[in-house]
Amino acid sequence: MFATILIILVVIIAAVLIYAATRPNDFVVTRSASIKAPAETIFPLLNDFRRWPEWSPFEKLDPGMKRTLSGAESGKGAAYAWEGNSKAGKGRMEITNSVPSSLVSLKLDFEKPFRANNSVDFTLSPSGEGTTVTWAMRGARPFIAKLMGLFMNFDTLIGKDFEAGLGNLKRLSER
């Protein structure tokens, strides 16, 4: 009886591990919001890390978070490093491309609570009476992330933070 239960358990665990290995090697999380403001109003909030505390939900994870700005003042070459509690973690991001009023691209490197290297794009597109802002993050999904993804939805976890940040940008820009 015990041997049968053990064999069934091993088969279930093997099946879960094999299924996880078949999951995609990359991920993309994307959210968009319509903001009734011109792109020229929104763009400076994204293109200047000194403005991020005004809208980024990640800034509120640790009130005592250590922040270091370096490189260019804004736009391409501007860099932002942070180190905080277990929720905020530790990492660095740098603006790799900046096209006035239409695109801000970042290289985003996490050190803690886990290592990850992702790319982020903020795209601003004219839309009706305002601007559609799209926040997208892309990166590799190592095996452990594939396995964790079977039990939690990464898109939902990160997506709700993106939605909150876009909501903050909307409130700030539509004043």
Specify the overall morphology.
elongated
- Mean pLDDT over the residues: 90
N-to-C CA distance: 69 Å
**Count of extended strands:** 7
Strand pairing plus helix content: what structural class?
alpha+beta
| Spans of at least 5 consecutive residues with low confidence | none
Number of helices: 4
- Provide the helix percentage: 25-40%
Please provide the ordered H/E string of secondary-structure elements.
HEHEEEEEEHH
Q: Tell me the fraction of residues in β-strands, as a range.
A: 35-45%
- Largest sheet geometry: 7 strands, antiparallel
Strand order of the largest sheet: 1-7-6-5-4-3-2
Radius of gyration: 20 Å
Please, could you describe this protein's structure?
The longest helix has 20 residues. Strands 1-7-6-5-4-3-2 form a seven-stranded antiparallel beta sheet. α1 crosses α3. The model has no long low-confidence stretch (mean pLDDT 90). The protein is built from four helices and seven strands, in the order αβαββββββαα. The chain has 175 residues and is α+β, with helices and mostly antiparallel strands. The protein starts with a helix and ends with a helix.
